[in-house]
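Please fill in the sequence for the structure shown.

STRUCTURE ENCODING:
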């Protein structure tokens, strides 16, 4: 069953400039679907279109069969859709714990706000699962390293317990060791029954982690298939599909 589906989506930021052309994508519930492509291919625009930050000119976006095209992000949070953007979404002058607590106050279960005790319990459990982040719970988020800030972004997503998590270029500018940790956190989402739609410039790593892959080139889907097919001969396939020499 498809949890997320884009049908023939065309979108851009101005009327005379089109970034995405007739995009159709399916994300099966319980899966990790990856999208790969060069910088400027339109990957982040596609993610923002799913999350209601860009309204398509043509085509529709569906969540669990329901048309959610152009719905505001806060409404999508209520539908248990979470977005980890490439840019920071943290409150830099709040502590690690308070960044999580502010989010916790916005979350609902069965239409009711979470009790303070449940918010605290969730925060404690999540920080226990991030050994590098837990000891810095009183530190301002803006003072954290880039890797720890990204870790906090993932902690927020785990706190929200989404059905669908959209992850946009999570390893940009990070050391290889931290990037590997990020992929471990991404796997945690799937283990927690969260469906993941991931885009990243790390082509080989996305192919290793994903169940299914799409290739985006100049705003168009140019290829797709099970990730295992990409892993077989990734070097030659990516060179051909994306027009680059590896």
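FILLED IN BY: designer on duty
SEQUENCE:
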């Amino acid at each position: 069953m498809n949890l997320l589906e884009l049908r023939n989506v065309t979108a851009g930021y101005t009327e005379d400039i089109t970034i995405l052309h007739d995009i159709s994508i399916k994300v099966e519930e319980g899966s990790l679907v990856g999208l790969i492509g060069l910088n400027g291919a339109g990957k982040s625009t596609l993610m923002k279109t799913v999350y209601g930050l860009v309204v398509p000119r043509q085509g529709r976006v569906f969540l669990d069969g329901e048309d959610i095209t152009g719905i505001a992000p806060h409404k999508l949070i209520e539908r248990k859709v979470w977005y980890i953007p490439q840019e920071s979404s943290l409150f830099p002058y709040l502590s690690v714990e308070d960044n999580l607590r502010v989010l916790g106050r916005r979350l609902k279960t069965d239409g009711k706000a979470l009790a303070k005790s449940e918010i605290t319990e969730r925060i404690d459990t999540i920080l226990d699962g991030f050994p590098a982040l837990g000891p810095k719970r009183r530190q301002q988020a803006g003072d954290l390293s880039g890797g720890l800030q990204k870790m906090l972004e993932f902690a927020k997503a785990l706190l929200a317990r989404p059905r669908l998590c959209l992850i946009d270029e999570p390893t940009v500018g990070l050391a290889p060791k931290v990037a590997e940790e990020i992929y471990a956190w991404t796997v945690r989402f799937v283990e927690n029954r969260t469906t993941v739609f991931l885009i990243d410039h790390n082509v080989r790593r996305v192919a290793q982690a994903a169940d299914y892959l799409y290739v985006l080139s100049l705003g168009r889907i140019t290829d797709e298939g099970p990730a295992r097919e990409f892993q077989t001969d990734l070097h030659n396939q990516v060179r051909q599909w994306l027009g680059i020499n590896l």
